[in-house]
Amino acid sequence: MVEVTEAGLRVGAAASIQGLRPVVRAIIEELPEHKSRGFAALLETMSVFASTQIRNVASIGGNIVTANAVSDINPFLLATGATLQVMDTEGKTRDIAVEEKFFLPNGQTSLSRGDIIVSVLIPYTTEGEFVQVYKQSSRGEVDRAVVNAAMRLVLTSDLQIVSDVSLVFGGMGDRPLLASRTMKALQGRKWDRSLVEFACSADMLPSDLPLAPDSQGGMVAYRRTLTLSIFFRFFLSVSEKLGRIWIEKRPAL
Ligand SMILES: Cc1cc2nc3c(=O)[nH]c(=O)nc-3n(C[C@H](O)[C@H](O)[C@H](O)COP(=O)(O)OP(=O)(O)OC[C@H]3O[C@@H](n4cnc5c(N)ncnc54)[C@H](O)[C@@H]3O)c2cc1C
Predict the structure, then answer these.
(1) Are the CB atoms for 170 and 74 separated by under 8 Å?
(2) Best of 46, 65, 108 to mutate for ligand 1, by most ligand atoms within 8 A of CB?
(3) To which CATH superfamily is domain 129-249 assigned?
């Protein structure tokens, strides 16, 4: 089930990744560009997800509950503030926000025993809101991420100042991690090049995402460097989009 609601896109938990792709693509075409930036990022995530064979059977609900540290879907849901509709063993439904405490160490979630995820609600984005996803793997296709990330930025109405930002990284711990300190520190800052230097300074992203030298998966220096280069890519991507928006808004000469 996929439903376009007033609050966003509601996706049935049993929907397969492959089945969802054309549906989400069609919905994006119907919506204003600014409203569907999160859905475009979801489409991108699904296009780098495993292989067609895996995508044909892998469901969105199964991916959430598997709670793998390099899940491609879970950082996206965390960054975009998705909500799960969950049914308990007595048939009662409730909503659970996908937030930092939802994912527990070692592939666990805070769902109770017997809970079934019925659907996932992904909110619309607004005019000053931008969402991007990144996946760095050893091969371009059919490979799990070494590091992946989902990032969401909300700018003030003049598109200059950070009003809110979510920076979520997979592959940097035993579950998707939020760079909480950096996220907080970026609020109220001007969206310009100095912000990149600030976010990448030693006591920001690197200290939010420490990896012990003997971390599982190895490639510690590489993974730590990736978090910075991914943030830089996010900065460039949003700045390029802002450039286009400013050109569109500029009064005709
Ligand atoms: C070769 C290979 C490559 C892969 N590559 C990637 C990749 O690139 N990116 C990535 O993110 N993942 C990847 N995966 C992981 C895999 O795709 C996910 O684990 C998949 O999404 C699980 O979905 P499923 O429907 O098969 O779940 P299942 O395996 O059927 O279920 C997983 C668990 O979730 C529970 N569950 C399922 N649905 C629900 C629900 N609605 N409510 C409550 N509990 C539920 C089940 O009971 C079970 O405990 C890969 C897996 C393989 C085998």
Answers:
(1) yes
(2) 65
(3) CO dehydrogenase flavoprotein, C-terminal domain (3.30.390.50)
Residues at CB less than 6 angstroms from ligand 1: 13, 49-50, 54, 57-59, 61-63, 65-66, 71-73, 116-117, 144
List, in order, residues 6 or more apart from 176 with CB less than 8 Å away.
Answer: 69, 71, 74, 75, 78, 103, 168, 169, 170
For the CA of 137, the nearest atom of ligand 1: 8
The full set of domain ranges for the chain reads 2-123, 129-249
Looking at residue 222, what is its pLDDT? 95
Threshold 0.90, pTM exceeds? yes
* Atom nearest to 59 CA in ligand 1: 25
Q: Average pLDDT in the 67-86 region?
A: 97
Taking the CA of residue 13 as reference, the ligand 1 atom at the shortest distance is 41
Residue 219 in tokens = 């490639």
From 54, 78, 88, 106, give the residue whose CB has the most ligand 1 atoms within 8 Å, as the site to mutate.
54
Q: What is the pLDDT of residues 22-51, one digit of tens each?
A: 999 999 999 999 999 999 999 999 999 999
For the 2-123 domain, the top CATH level (class) is alpha beta
Res 251 pLDDT > 80 = no
CA of 58 to the centre of ligand 1 (A): 5
Of 119, 176, 118, 188, residue with least CA distance to 151:
176
Distance of CA 50 to the CA centre of its chain: 17
The token pair at 80 is: 């975009």
